Amino acid sequence: MEGQAIHAESSTSRSRPPRPAPSTPSRSQGTKRRQSTPAETHDDSEEDAPPVELDEVSYHISDRSSHQLYVTLRTDVVGVQHYRGLVGRGEYVVLRRQPNNPYDSNAVQVINATGQQVGHVPRAVAAKIAPLMDHNLITVEGRMIGQNLDRSMHYKLKMDMLIYARPSHRYALEPELEWATPGQQGFERMRQAQAAQAAKGKGAGDGGGLSEQEAELGRLLNKLTEVKEEKKFANNVMSVLTADLDVANLPPHPSPPSLASGDLLVDLLPHQSQALQWMVEHENPVLPKKVGDAPVQFWARHAPEGKTQEYWVNIATKTPQVDNPTLGRGGIIADGMGLGKTLTTLALVLATRNSKPASPFSNATLIVCPLSVLSNWEKQIEDHVVIGKLKSYTYHGAGKGIGATALSKYDIVLTTYQTIAAEMPAPESSTPSGKGKKAKTTSASGPLLKVKWKRVVADEGHVMKNTKAKMTQAFGDLQAERRWVCTGTPIVNSAADLGTLLTCLRLCVPLDDPQIFKSLILRPIKAGSGEASRLLQAVVGQVLLRRTKESKDKKGKKLVTLPKIEYYQCPVKLDPETRKLYDDVQVESAKRFQESVATGGTGANVLSMLTRMRQLCLSADMIPADYLETLRNTDTLNAGPSVSISSLQPEQKDKLIEKLRQAIADQEECSVCFDVLDDPRITDCGHPFCLLCITEVINRQALCPMDRHPLSLNSLLELPPDIDLSLVEDNVVKPRTRSAKIAELVRYLKAFDANDKTLVFSQFTTFLDRVAGVLQEEGIPFCRFDGTMPAKKRQQVIAQFQTPVTGDNRDGNPVVMLISLKSGAVGLNLTAASNVFLCDPWWQSAIEAQAVDRVHRMGQRKTVRVFQLIAEDTIESKVLDIQKRKDDLVAKAFEKSGTREVKAAKKQGRFEDLKELFGVAK
Ligand SMILES: Nc1ncnc2c1ncn2[C@@H]1O[C@H](COP(=O)(O)OP(=O)(O)OP(=O)(O)O)[C@@H](O)[C@H]1O
After folding, report:
1. How far is the CA of 606 from the centre of ligand 1 (A)?
2. How far apart are CA 163 and CA 146, in angstroms?
3. Residues with Cβ < 8 Å from 475, sequence gap 6 or more?
4. Does ipTM top 0.90?
5. Among protein residues, the one whose CA lies closest to atom 2 of ligand 1
6. List of domains in the chain
7. Which of 357, 665, 760, 862 is deepest in the core (most CB within 10 A)?
8. 671-695: per-residue pLDDT in tens?
């Protein structure tokens, strides 16, 4: 039975973000292999079948979970003679369920890196793994031991099958998988055998034999995944990943656009000219000329011994092919904030104006950015490009009434992520998105998706951290000859972020495939593979340029010289009334926390309790008047049955919607991923989550992670489309009493020089409303900036704020800008300010650093002063302690010794952190 072929169905494609045509051909075109020989031909249905696509959805869901390698099973790929897919030794292959196979409903296909089927998993093995795969309990992938590159007739090929599952499922799953352990010895004995081997010093994973530095990098990357909220850590990892790049000695552009050339109103700085040349080279990559030349995007020339015909080998995936591989054009500009990525990109457009792209592409560049930086691009063009040298157009809001042909005549078109997402054709709602079917479309795509761009640039491209998000898919759908990402933080949460960027950029084919990136890089890194860490480092070396404010040129001089920056911590004493309320709330919250720990769950709404305590530190009227009472009376253990949203009373629904709206306005985090809510939903028990996070939880355990209330997908509610999330213009709240923090802030503002401008950051827009009320009372001119403001308004606000105070414009010239910490701050130039107030400490020091970077950047002439307001003896001082401890841990993790202890300390640290925040004695 095992050698018998199971025929493929003719329609096997599933949906994944479509690939742009024709510059970046589909995988089957781009990495086409040798023509099949007569011996390899097979039945017609297979011949006409479209190339097999990967299942994007299941990839995404499983990638968000932390699966662990349970066991590796040596097995076969069978029925190889019926398929045309070729594989090399060591190549990773995708194992995909084929439930509609007419001969075996348990069938599992084996698919190579170019999407072609190689064969099937043996029937007996498939029967065991198929039900587990169907229930999303395991993920499997294969690594080829045998190969069929010799083109002789093969019926089966040896393969290692790697079975992954969640660590928390071990208890239930191991009995189901005993048959897969070597000699069916069972997991316990397998572990004992592995431990004995490790004790003999044979090394774990495939990290054995690799240098200590490689192993160390692997360990660091693993920690990155574990401590995903630690952005500083991510920055450090970027430093490690880019440590070997010799950026100081990059050649400058021979004739960059400049004052002298009449294109720019400024000259590029030397590091910007180097970046320009690097970008030009990466838009025109050249395959290695001969055997032995350095690989380009991992493709190397290969000449088999004794044979004359050379072929190509992808040294990352071990994929061979005869036809010339297609190279991606573009890359990632990951320079630190404020080094001039915007200006360099404009210089690229100017420098390549006369090199017309191949037909059918136009000469137009599309720049996609968050709404908050749209006006910054307009301003940079206005400030730095000589009038008439670049024709630019902003395609947003009222500017949308223009067709594809007109757009393609511009040199630069500016737009936002939301706009490109909205231009995607709407899927036909009645079409079931069943397996094997692509959603049909009813509406046509918008003009942006119709233009054949010379290049597309994703500014602040790290926002595309999720391959399933509409804007990521929309960027992938844009048709362009060259593709770029600009971001100071290419890795935000984990190395997977870099994989997403490769996918969006179509670079390093076939590593741009999420499934292959995961198999080759993410999973092995988790398993401690130094080789995979080295591969990740190599990917970075191929596609990314990064310098920071600390980088030095070849003479040892810093790239940019900036004025001094001074940090001050300002302790604030709560007023007696707030102090009393805070202490009561803390005692009650601690009780709730302990109760939930005692019952063994995440129990009570931990995050929401922490948020309320933080709001109390800012201004007591930010929490509901009856909050303490509610806290005392809430029965956290009363879960109740799952409720379908459709059965809720209208007033219950309204309450939930209001709660969700508030959570979004307050930038509350999702308590599954600890990130800002993405595509938010609220449960019938009143907890907000990202849609993807809560869907995954429901699929797994159908209980709310906050209060164990039973949930189903029907218990989720989203905001109605007509609800207005935008900041109510000039929202000003006159607080009943002035909180200690607001009083302290005003004290400083009054003491500053009348010409000094100040940024006031808070995570809570509702707090900024209260500050606004007090500033109004005090007659201190201020403005507000918020991520949800219309583009025109933002531009006006920034322009107004950036106007220096002089004798004649003092009246109404804002000296304070109120700005929310997490929305809208990235990418802004606010150098008119030299004082920064951080009103509430944030867990991620990197977010605060980003805020400070709005002011401490090129163009700043004064010393920058940063004031952190900390409410004494509250959760805020504890947050700082935790932040510091985490920074210490990060520092330690970079020392070579003690990393295992660091890891253990971190795990324990999470729980200890919570105890500390609630004031529960250790
Ligand atoms: N060569 C230059 N001459 C004069 N000013 C410059 C030059 N390069 C950059 N600047 C100014 O420095 C500031 C920062 O530049 P820019 O906004 O391009 O940085 P960035 O790397 O895109 O920053 P971010 O990561 O925050 O988006 C801008 O005000 C810009 O006008």
Report:
1. 41
2. 19
3. 368, 417, 420, 456, 458, 464, 504
4. yes
5. 268
6. 27-199 (3.30.70.2330), 237-285+328-426+445-512+541-545 (3.40.50.10810), 286-326 (no CATH), 562-581+727-922 (3.40.50.300), 582-717 (3.30.40.10)
7. 760
8. 776 666 777 899 988 888 888 888 8
